[in-house]
Structure formats: C-alpha cells, structure tokens
Amino acid sequence: MAQASITDLYPSRVTDMPSITERQDPALWCDLNAPPPGPLTREQLAAFERDGFLFLPDVFTPDEVERFRMELSRMANDSELRGKEETVLEEDGEMVRSIFRIHRLSDVFRKLAKDPRVADAARQVLGSDVYIHQSRINLKKPLYGKGFFWHSDFETWHVEDGMPRPRAVSASVALTENNEFNGPVMVIPGSHKRFVACVGETPDDYYKQSLRKQEAGTPDLESMQTLVAESSIQAPKGAPGGVLFFECNMMHGSTENLSPFPRSNAFFVFNSVENTLAEPFSGKEPRPEFAGERDFTPVGDL
Ligand code: 6CS
Ligand code: FE
C-alpha cells in the first residue's frame, strides 16, 4: 500500500544501517507560558518536556486499585476472552502476557481511560482532544513474567500502524507495586528527543510475534550506548495507584519478573485527534484494531 501524500518524517526499518536523528516535532504541545488548566502543573509539564516521562505517585486510591485488580483477574480468567486475539500469551507457555483493548472490553477500564486524572493530563500534554490508540493490561506473573526489549513505541506505531507524528502519550497505571525485582519499566530520560531508525524489514503479520517478543523495531547496541551516554537509565518505582506518563518516542524496556509476586499495570495510549492514523509506513497491511485503533472517537464520548 503506497503512502502517496504523506512524507515519512521518521523512516525506520528501511536500510541496513541504524541511525539517530533529531526529533522533528515538539514533545509538549501546549504553551508553557499560559496558565495550565490542570491536572498537571507547569513544573510537571516542563519535566515531561525535558525527560519524556512523568511519574506521579498515589493518583488512584487503594480502593480504586482493588477494583481494577478484581477486573484484571476476572478478565485473565475469562475463558471466552482467552480464545480471542486480544489476549496475548507468553511465548513459552500458556500464561497470559497482555490483554488488549480493555477500554472496549471492560466497563471498569473504559471509565479508567476517561478519568480526568489520566485523560485531562493527556489532553494537556498533547494540546488537543484525544482518543485511545491502544490499551492493554500487562501481567508479569510471579517468577515467569517475561520482559519487553528496549524500544520506542512511536517507532512501531509509525511503521506498523501509520501514526504520522509523535503526538501521543501513554499512561501506565500501576496495579501492583513496581520495584527493582519485578521488572519495572526502565526509561532513558531525554531519549524522546532523538529518533532511532532501526534495521530490518517488518515481516507480514508481525504483530503475532512482536507482541510476545519484539525483534524488528528494536535499537542496535551503538545507538543505545549513545542515548545512555548522553543521559542515564532510570526505573520509576512505587506503590500501586501511581501513574507513569511517557511520551510515545521515549526509549524504554523492562526485564522479566523474577520476584515471587506479580507485576501488572493498565496501559492507555492517548493520541491527538489531530494525529490520526494513515496507512502504515512499512507499506504492509495495518495491524488489527486491538493493536492500533482506527475509530478515532474522542475518549470522552466512549
Ligand atoms: O507493539 C505495540 O504497539 C506495543 N509494544 C510494546 C512493546 N510497547 C507498546 C505497545 O503496547
Ligand atoms: Fe512500549
């Protein structure tokens, strides 16, 4: 499928040489000089612009988190859901790794997606109304939950889903504690301002493999060394109920969960209604809607 009219500002997986280029777009789409409508303060917005992420502890109460966890466990044990494409199993077993499209499959998570504590923060950062590009719960089972190799989400959403520009933000709501032992998300502050073009072609129906273990669309060693030499690796940790907001092009990853306790989070990707999907820049068929939604209804109307 040829992309006739849109120039590819972020080519990736097109040559066999990796490269790092500058971001072509703002990281924050609102005016820092105007009084912020909230919930994020000017300082928080400035930190997000600089680092590409913002960790807010205690956004949701223990009672709310309990409700989310009950819903997660109901969904993970739903045999009908297990047969659907939205449920992704770990590569080496029968264990559930992720359940996608939770804002459409569950009333509890639909309400969470619309909650002003996440949705209004996303509207602020993106300077427009927003819709959900993707949602999911990630479950890292005690001892066995596998990791996610380093990647920029935007790289995938651009190449595989046709997201034109990096104007999306993820909110990851912690449903369990995140600590150094259970595979928390690791981030590279400031990496969202650089674009790492990856090598390798995108195979057909690649999502069937990549959602379990990603290979194409992951950065090379030298690019990772460059990003970290300019910055550092951090792992925001904290109690259940905290929210990690992260810019869609920020380099991140996580290791497996070797702790004897679960690690799970509910993850919502807000994309600007001014940045809706085109055809995938890979030239391949778009991924199914559970991975890259093509109904651009603003989240408030869901
Ligand atoms: O392929 C995707 O769209 C997803 N993959 C990863 C590893 N992170 C973001 C996104 O959920
Ligand atoms: Fe990711």
Q: Topology of this protein?
A:
Elements (H helix, E strand, L loop, with lengths): L18 E4 L19 H10 L1 E4 L5 H15 L2 H4 L4 E3 L6 E5 L1 H4 L1 H8 L1 H11 L3 E11 L7 E4 L1 H9 L6 E7 L11 E2 L6 E4 L9 H4 L10 H9 L13 E5 L4 E3 L8 E10 L30
Antiparallel strand pairs: 1-9, 2-10, 3-4, 4-5, 5-12, 6-11, 7-10, 7-12, 8-11
Bound molecules: ligand 6CS and fe (iii) ion (FE).
Q: What is the residue-averaged pLDDT?
A: 95
Count of discrete structural domains: 1
Per CATH, which architecture?
Answer: Sandwich
- In the CATH hierarchy, what is the class? Mainly Beta
Strand content: 15-25%
Number of strands: 12
* Structural class by secondary-structure content: alpha+beta
Describe the structure.
The protein has 302 residues and is an alpha+beta fold. The chain has a single domain (3-301), classed as q2cbj1_9rhob like domain (Jelly Rolls, Sandwich), CATH 2.60.120.620. 25% of the residues lie in helices and 21% in strands. The protein has nine helices and twelve strands. It has helices at 42-51, 62-76, 79-82, 102-105, 107-114, 116-126, 153-161, 207-210, 221-229, and strands at 19-22, 53-56, 87-89, 96-100, 130-140, 148-151, 168-174, 186-187, 194-197, 243-247, 252-254, 263-272. The strands form three sheets. A seven-stranded antiparallel β-sheet has the order 2-10-7-12-5-4-3. Strands 6-11-8 form a three-stranded antiparallel β-sheet, with helices on one face. A two-stranded antiparallel sheet has the order 1-9. β3 (87-89) and β4 form a beta hairpin. It is globular. The model has no long low-confidence stretch (mean pLDDT 95). Residues 151, 153, 252 line the site of fe (iii) ion.
